Amino acid sequence: MRFLFLIVYSLFSMICFAQKKDFIIKNSGDTVYGKIVLKDKHFVVSAKGKQNLVVNAADVKTAHLKKYKGSLVLPCKLNTYIDNLEFLERYKYITYQIDTVLILSEVYNTPKMNLYFCMDANEQQYYFIKTPKDSLPIQLYVNYALAGGSTGYDYFYARGQDAITHIEVQRAFVNQLKLAMEDCPSISKETWLLLDYRIYSFKKLIKLYNECK
Hints:
Elements: H1 2-20, E1 23-26, E2 31-33, E3 35-39, E4 42-46, E5 53-56, E6 60-64, E7 72-79, H2 85-90, E8 97-109, E9 114-119, E10 125-130, E11 138-139, E12 143-146, E13 167-170, H3 172-180, H4 189-194, H5 199-211
Antiparallel strand pairs: 1-2, 1-6, 3-4, 4-5, 7-8, 8-9, 9-10, 10-11, 12-13
């Protein structure tokens, strides 16, 4: 009985160990195992007794690493944003573009459109969509600015009645999705007006799109 228990325990331990091991799957279909780090748009793979292997991220389809929740590898130019009111009130933040590599999580899969998600070090959320005709996921753009333009930026701490204390959302993602869903005119104006840059809102819209005949 004890011997049987040891066998079962050993098998269970081996399975758990195998599940935790990092690996990448290349576009060619090859799988590479080892201790893997994403650095400067390359995956650096190190294994005991072997020389480090450097793989261009553009050659990798998926990366299964303990550090990341997602697995889909996407080299892209990420359009950044920030929605922190306190930060926007103090500093003039300008949206900029980063040439980077993302590891996306697929959060919604449907026949007409898939939804992907990732988060940066500042916990800003980014969403991407992919239709059957798209070769890679496309970023949904959003930006935030102080309401009324940039007048509040002229004063380090705006005070009094002229203080700007709320954020205006520039919803470029709405037009992007309208274009992607132009074959479904039955989606109401109210749906577009209420669409928010949040996972639940995108899922609801994509569900409507899939129900469209």
